Amino acid sequence: MTDIAKRLTTDGLVLQVGSFKYSIQTQYRSIVASIAILYTDFETLNKDDENIFIDFYISIEPTNIFGKFISRQAQFRFDGFIPFNSLPCQHAPAIIEWGMNWCVSSQINTHLIIHAAVIEKSGYAVVMPAPPGSGKSTLTAALIQEGWRLLSDELTIIDVETAHVVPFPRPVSLKNLSIDIIKERYPSVVFGPVSTDTSKGNVCHIKPPQLSVQQQFLECPVGGVIFPKYEQGVSAELIEIGKGQALMDVASNSFNYSRLGSAGFDVLHKVIDSASCYQFQYSQLDDAIAIFSALELGRE
User: Fold this and answer.
1) How far is CA 220 from CA 41, 72, 123, 159, in A?
2) Cβ-count burial 152-161 (b if 16+ within 10 Å, e if not)
């Protein structure tokens, strides 16, 4: 048994992921395999070190280890309580990723948390809020193979004092056809286990680039806010939008904007005021990559 597997299945593996420390426990071999594949570049910490403050204690276990039928359901636990319903055990690798996102989006109110991918190049971040099915994660997965730094696939974390993005470079989630598209286009990308037949279809995560993990404490200002939308057959096009509309749309994609009150408005105003704001439609990754490569950020 490897050290990672032993710690996961006993008193917990502590991972430093961006600004947060997770203690993770599980008996599921699929999760052990997933973490061993996707998190090899992340720092693991000594749980007994009295100087370490662990932000989130999480586990995924069978709902009832004594019942063969019931144990086909996997249950996510946070600090010992159950925040949502159990799911089929074949979803376990996806559950751990969803659960790690939930910890930050539901528990953190020291930063503005936006449901958006965020990537960086030349010192400036591009925030990409978008609903499911918009092609956001496929676009993100492609761009981070084309020289962009991954800051996050799902959660844009904004420091309320500096208005800079705080990196959270975890594995990128892909679904259904997007899995095959990225596999074919980028054969060297490392894929974790597939969670089959979830509510989103087949879900798989890809390993974040090593450099993105090494730079996970390097914050940066926002240079662009882009709302992407995949639509079959359309020509790739950036369409500039007003800052007032962009602010409202980003606020509606935030998990804690209203809870932060005036601090949320102030930091989001700073972000939008300094960023170029666009809607973006595309159907071909080649065209999307070319347009993003030509972006001039940080000139507002």
Assistant:
1) 21, 43, 6, 10
2) bbbbbbbebe
pLDDT digits (tens, 9 = 90+) for 158-188: 999 999 999 999 999 999 999 999 999 999 9
Nearest Cα neighbor of 238 from 203, 208, 277 is 277
May I ask the CATH class of domain 111-170+208-300?
alpha beta
Is the pTM above the cut of 0.70? Answer: yes
Domain boundaries, the chain: 1-107, 111-170+208-300
How confident is the model over 90-106, as pLDDT tens digits?
899 999 999 999 999 99
Give the residue from 172, 181, 190, 206 showing the smallest Cα distance to 285.
Answer: 181
Q: Which amino acid is at 222?
A: V
Average pLDDT over residues 257-273: 96
